[in-house]
Amino acid sequence: MASKQALSKFSKSFLRNNRGLLSGRTFATTTSLLPTLRKTILPNGFTVATEENPASQTATVGVWIDAGSRAENEKNNGAAHFLEHMAFKGTKSRSQRDLELQIENMGGHLNAYTSREQTVYYAKAFKYDVPKAVEILSDILQNSTLDHGAIERERDVILREQEEVEKQMEEVVFDHLHATAFKNESLGLTILGPKENIQSLTRDDLSSYIKTNYTGERMILVGTGGVDHDALVQLAQNHFGQLPNKLNLSTSKSAMKKAVFTGDDFRIYTPEAQQAHIAVAVEGASWTSPDYFPLLVMQSIIGSWDRSLGATGHLDSRLSSVLHNKQLANSFMSFNTSYKDTGLWGIYLITENKDRLDDLLVSTKKEWMRLANSVTDEEVQRAKQQLKAGLLLSLDGSTPIAEDIGRQLLTSGERMSPKAVEDLVAKITVEDVKRVAKDYLQRDAAVVGIGPVEKMPDFNRL
Fold first, then answer.
1. Active-site annotation, residues
2. If you average pLDDT over residues 351-378, what whole number do you get?
3. Of 74, 209, 254, 353, whose CB neighbour count within 10 A is largest?
4. Of 47, 235, 242, 3, whose CA–CA distance to 133 is shortest?
């Protein structure tokens, strides 16, 4: 029952190294025998989506809500994540202990996470327990007591979680990167919120967030594995049919304005630190942009590298060879993070060679420019194969499939078919990569440097 930042070390590492890929659209080599997506929209705008697998004895059911920290402002920043914690602390008909016992007695698993654009509550259970799981989800989403005593106790829990996040430099860097790239935008807010908000958010703040965002048009019940679509639709009607639709135009999904990207520079000088942490990102593409897949191919071409894992400079990534041979970095990771209307495409670098930060960034920029001018067909073909493999690996199990369905339906209203994805990836050419690289990589970048970065040059002026 934690934010994305509190996932297991393996999951978080996998997500980070495939930003924008693991949550991407699905891929498969054949479609004729695969389960198909069915979708029904209730009169109040609440959507039910399923991918049935009758052979499965277990199922994942969850509610995907089109609201995360991006639906907040500076005053209530942290409310979505705070609510995620409060959801399991008791409802009008169940105490916290009742919830825990009922889930345990089912042999099930109940969890939640908050991201910048979504809040998700889901359950994994035996297929014959799906009705009970849906009823419990509806109860915690609509009838949480938000007890004053529980709120006060949970403040300390969230503050400790924040302390742990602040010890993870990668999380710190990416939070600062969003704040720099999306200044004065809700997309630039952190998921947990600032310390003062965690200490001061009230029950009214949490109730107001629910009233504003937990509406029919913003919510999707997803079922995968051993589920029956028609039965799930009836369950949804019974338990979520009374949810209001959009309250007014200002709270409708369509009222969201595009986030404005800012090319700017942010630095925290800590000369005593052993390593410099640097992130550079240009504005990327939304989930539904035609440039989404070419940018993923570009991400794969740049690749990732970590000296501490024994990686040499003989990997497919040309940048790894340069940085390894010249001893300019300890590691780097390319990333592609997409949102509904924008994105971040860039690289995260770690180095202890603080006197050669100019060489590090010049080498990085040269490699970016090479994508626009002289990338080879061999590199593009290899990156496409790696992309396909990554997309396949990301859909192992009913829960990742449910996540894929929920995210896609919230961002575009549809789920791209596996065959469509296969065709799109196959059609990407060297010319596509060069065109997209020229378009995106010549824009001003948002840059974050933390550590001994006194000698770090201005990336946009190199």
1. 84
2. 96
3. 209
4. 235
